[in-house]
């Protein structure tokens, strides 16, 4: 089965807007207390109207990049979020620290300001930590999506 693991207490009601500068990267470190399979990330969609975002997502373990996906993704403000999946699912091992990043080019997006430092999803706890790879003054725009 497949579960979304949200960092926001109210994921259906984003409370803010967020901008993206050229070359800016949103990043967050995370670890789990159980093995899971990562499909990709659910990202906040455009704040108003509809548009196409240019997106590159990456997953790191330390300084080593494990996976990368680049593409164009259509987003509508009414949908709130959109999904970006890696080409293959990724095994996330319990207790290891990973970094999720997203580089987005596009209009201002929805955002939330109530990100949690940990979230329990189908019996697995995901802990989120501020990442040194973040260059967009944020660690609240990313949300890990996994199945296990």
UniProtKB/TrEMBL annotation:
GO terms for cellular component: cytosol. It comes from Desmophyllum pertusum. One of its GO terms (biological process) is neurogenesis. This is PHR domain. Transmembrane segments: none annotated. Residues 13-140 form the PHR domain. InterPro entries: PHR, PHR_sf. Signal peptide: none annotated.
């Amino acid at each position: 089965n497949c579960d979304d693991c949200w960092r926001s207490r109210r994921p259906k009601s984003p409370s803010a807007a967020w901008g993206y500068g050229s070359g800016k990267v949103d990043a967050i470190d995370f670890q789990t207390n159980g093995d899971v399979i990562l499909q990709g990330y659910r990202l906040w969609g455009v704040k108003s109207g509809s548009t196409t975002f240019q997106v590159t997502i990456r997953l790191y373990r330390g300084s080593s990049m494990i996976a990368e996906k680049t593409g164009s993704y259509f987003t509508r403000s009414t949908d709130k979020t959109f999904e970006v999946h890696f080409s293959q699912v990724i095994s996330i091992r319990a207790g290891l620290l990973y970094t999720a990043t997203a580089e987005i080019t596009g209009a201002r997006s929805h955002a939330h300001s109530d990100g949690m430092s940990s979230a329990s999803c189908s019996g697995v706890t995901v802990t989120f930590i501020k990442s040194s790879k973040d260059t967009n003054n944020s660690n609240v725009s990313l949300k890990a999506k996994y199945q296990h």
